[in-house]
Amino acid sequence: MSVKLASLAVASCLLAASSAEAHHSFSAEFDADKPVEQTGLVTKIEWLNPHVWFFIDVTGEDGTVTNWGWEMGSPNGLMRRGWTRNSMRIGDIVRVEGSAAKDGSAKANARTVLLTASGARLFAGSSQGQAR
């Protein structure tokens, strides 16, 4: 086997391993028994595979603002559920329901998103149903 062919094979294996690691199961990161509901201002949207993420500033009872990351389904899956890249924009106020991260960090897996400006309630493509 030539050195070029061997190098290509190794690079392909490394690439496959890194993308497989990026796509995790729901139960590896989130807890279905820890429901969370928040309302906040959208600060960032990452419309990328394998999951769309968006971030909202949530103001606590003490006035402290925490930026929460919310995971949704894949871009393709969300589009089949009625989402577009313009459904939610930076600066929008949204109410989100989902499941908190197991590690207690400020992230969660979204089940539904209420777009308060339009009143539209969209399914977020959560993989929670596949976790049980």
Describe this structure in words.
The chain has helices spanning 3-22, 26-29, 75-80, and strands spanning 30-46, 53-59, 65-71, 93-101, 107-115, 120-123. With 132 residues, the chain is of the alpha+beta class. The chain has one domain: Nucleic acid-binding proteins (OB fold (Dihydrolipoamide Acetyltransferase, E2P), Beta Barrel), CATH 2.40.50.140. A hairpin with a 5-residue loop joins strand 2 and strand 3. The radius of gyration is 18 Å and the shape is globular. The chain starts with a helix and ends in a 9-residue tail after the last strand. Mean pLDDT is 84; it is low at 13-21.
Q: Could you name the key traits of this structure?
A:
132 residues; alpha+beta; OB fold (Dihydrolipoamide Acetyltransferase, E2P); 6 strands
Output the helix-strand order. HHEEEHEEE
CATH superfamily: Nucleic acid-binding proteins
Q: How would you classify the helix and strand content by structural class? A: alpha+beta
**What is the CA-CA span between the terminal residues?**
46 Å
Low-confidence runs: 13-21
List the helices and strands and how they pair.
Elements: H1 3-22, H2 26-29, E1 30-46, E2 53-59, E3 65-71, H3 75-80, E4 93-101, E5 107-115, E6 120-123
Parallel strand pairs: 3-5
Antiparallel strand pairs: 1-2, 1-4, 2-3, 4-5, 5-6
